[in-house]
Design goal:
Helix content of chain B: 40-55%
Radius of gyration of chain B: 15 Å
Mean pLDDT of chain A: 97
Number of domains of chain B: 1
CATH architecture of chain B: 3-Layer(aba) Sandwich
CATH class of the largest domain in chain A: Alpha Beta
Order of helices and strands of chain B: EHEEEHEEHHHH
Strand content of chain A: 15-25%
Low-confidence stretches of chain A: none
Structural class of chain A: alpha/beta
Strand order of the largest sheet of chain A: 3-2-4-5-7-6-12
Largest sheet of chain A: 7 strands, mixed
Oligomer: heterodimer
Shape of chain A: globular
CATH architecture of the largest domain in chain A: 3-Layer(aba) Sandwich
CATH class of chain B: Alpha Beta
Shape of chain B: globular
Number of strands of chain A: 14
Strand content of chain B: 15-25%
Structural class of chain B: alpha/beta
CATH superfamily of chain B: Pyruvate-ferredoxin oxidoreductase, PFOR, domain III
């Protein structure tokens, strides 16, 4: 298939279809409306079903039901809507069901604004709803990567029977870039899900549940989940860019900010300053070991986010004082220019020479 | 090669469309491309802009504080982006709706009465195409034929629209090209 110019949101929708997903339940919110719009047009063409739910809470519970029935299913929303979905996501995580959730982040808290933000990092990577659970979180930084990660997200969700979140922002969702779909999975070719509640006929009863009134049983279930999250650690993905031979400043950034860092790297080169980029692609599991190794070649570390400082906590925990760690954030829908990152890197170099 | 181009005008003038056409033509010519719309709380009749980046290497930021070129279809757009254009850059000014020329003396200014030409060609709606043509003529950035082939994709099975827009593009292209030649000749 030839390359097509697509918005991030549209590419995410098409990728879900290429992953064999035929169900979408959601509720509109800017800046991701192109996803439900796209799915509402495309799903009927491929024999799928699109439902605009009465609310995000309802959409997340529709996801719960469809995933329990063994179907590939996904939803998308933006920050305030994702908060509303946390009820369903906590139940889905507890019942160990595979779903894919896309969060195209906008500025918060509250209704906030509609422009790009990365201020849902804590919510995405530390659970989000109540209870001890984790989502597997993937953060694309190009439209092509968004499409590729959506397809992988469905496979990862099935493999771990766990919700997987694609964490993008308004810029990734609204931007157009060339995209190519390399593989197409047909729903009928997907592996069987013997645990699904598909009708008991001739087999043992399957139960999907999140209620464990016996504390011993619930404790065992909690540790089972915990061990699963530890097993997921092997899924870490990251990109180290311009870090060979060490660097003056290692910028740690994901998604949109990682793109801007790449432009900053070119600008800094002209000034004789070497900036490297460490870009986590999985935000949970976090690529801690790779970050520590990459930071060994850097004189200092600068974390940059579209937040007042969330991922920086994981970076500081990983670096554990072995390098100075600075932070630079823009919020409220404002996006830093590459010149701001160069300026921050220069400041860090001046302080820590 | 690395070019950041901002296109701006009123909502409804087709700014996003000419941005997409430029991005498509750039992609078909083998470049890396990004297209980024302004998507703030816009209203009908409000201003609208998009940024297209064409490059021979992977593109970092898809937004531009210092574009290489500006296509301004209305006065608020010229007011907003004129100062941001890099020295040596290009500003295409739609003189049908903008009653002043840029103050900048360190850029190439291409004045084009886009709405009047569009009406002559047959539809006032094609003013955006005239302006895009003028930019292509002045910059030589993407082959005019490359953009015309994109028209066929943009308006599938609508031969009349394709022809009208082609005409509008060509008229703009001639003006832009003539202007660039005049500037080069001093």
């Amino acid at each position: 298939m030839a390359k097509k110019l697509m918005k991030g949101c549209e590419a995410i929708g098409e990728a879900a279809i290429h992953a064999g997903c035929r169900l979408f339940f959601g509720y509109p919110i800017t800046p991701q409306n192109e996803i439900p719009e796209y799915m509402s047009a495309r799903l009927p063409q491929v024999g799928g079903t699109f439902v605009q739910a009465e609310s995000e809470v309802a959409a997340s519970n529709m996801l719960y039901g469809a995933a329990g029935a063994g179907c590939r299913v996904f939803t998308s929303s933006s920050s305030p809507g994702i908060s509303l979905m946390q009820e369903g996501l906590s139940y889905i995580a507890a019942a160990e069901l595979p779903v894919v959730v896309v969060n195209i982040m906008r500025g918060g808290p509250g209704l906030g604004g509609i422009l790009p933000s990365q201020s849902d990092y804590f919510q995405a990577t530390k659970g989000g709803g109540h209870g001890d659970y984790r989502l597997l979180v993937l953060a694309p930084s190009t439209v092509q990567e968004a499409a590729d990660l959506v397809i992988d997200a469905f496979d990862l969700a099935d493999e771990y029977r766990n919700p997987v979140m694609i964490l993008g922002d308004g810029l990734i969702g609204q931007m157009m870039e060339p995209v190519e779909f390399k593989k197409e999975i047909k729903p009928e070719d997907l592996p069987e899900k013997p645990w699904a509640t598909t009708g008991r006929a001739g087999r043992q009863q399957n139960i999907i549940n999140s209620l464990y009134l016996d504390p011993e049983q619930l404790e065992a279930h909690n540790w089972d989940l915990h061990r699963k999250y530890q097993r997921m650690a092997k899924e870490v993905r990251y990109e180290a860019f311009n870090t060979d031979g060490g660097c003056d400043v290692l910028i740690v950034a994901y998604g949109t900010v990682a793109r801007i860092t790449k432009t900053a790297i070119d600008m800094a080169r002209e000034k004789g300053l070497k900036i490297g980029l460490f870009r986590p692609i999985t935000l949970y599991p976090y690529p801690t070991e790779a970050l520590v190794q990459t930071a060994e070649g850097a004189k200092s570390v600068l974390v940059s986010e579209l937040s007042t400082g969330q991922m920086v906590e994981d970076v500081r925990a990983a670096i554990a004082g072995r390098r100075p760690v600075g932070f630079y954030g823009r919020v409220g829908g404002m996006v830093m220019g590459p010149d701001e990152l160069v300026e921050q890197a220069e400041k860090l170099v001046a302080v820590h020479v | 090669m690395h070019n950041e181009i901002v296109m701006a005008g009123f909502g409804g003038q087709g700014v996003l469309l000419i941005g997409k056409m430029l991005a498509y033509a750039g992609m078909n010519a083998g470049n890396e491309v990004t297209w980024m719309p302004s998507y703030g709380p816009e209203m009908r009749g409000g201003t609208c802009n998009c940024t297209v980046v064409l490059s021979d290497h992977p593109i970092g930021s898809p937004i531009s504080k210092r574009p290489h070129a500006l296509i301004a279809l209305n006065l608020p757009s010229l007011d907003k982006f004129e100062d941001a254009v890099r020295p040596g850059g290009i500003i295409v000014v739609n003189t049908s709706l903008i009653n002043r020329l840029p103050k900048r003396t360190d850029v190439t200014v291409v004045p084009v009465p886009a709405n009047e030409i569009a009406v002559e060609v047959g539809t006032a709606k094609a003013a955006n195409m005239v302006a895009l043509g003028a930019f292509l003529g002045a910059s030589g950035l993407v082959d005019q034929k490359g953009v015309e082939s994109v028209l066929v994709e943009a308006f599938p099975n609508r031969q009349k629209l394709i022809e009208l827009n082609e005409k509008a593009l060509r008229r703009g292209f001639e003006i832009g090209q003539g202007h660039a030649a005049a500037v080069a000749a001093g």
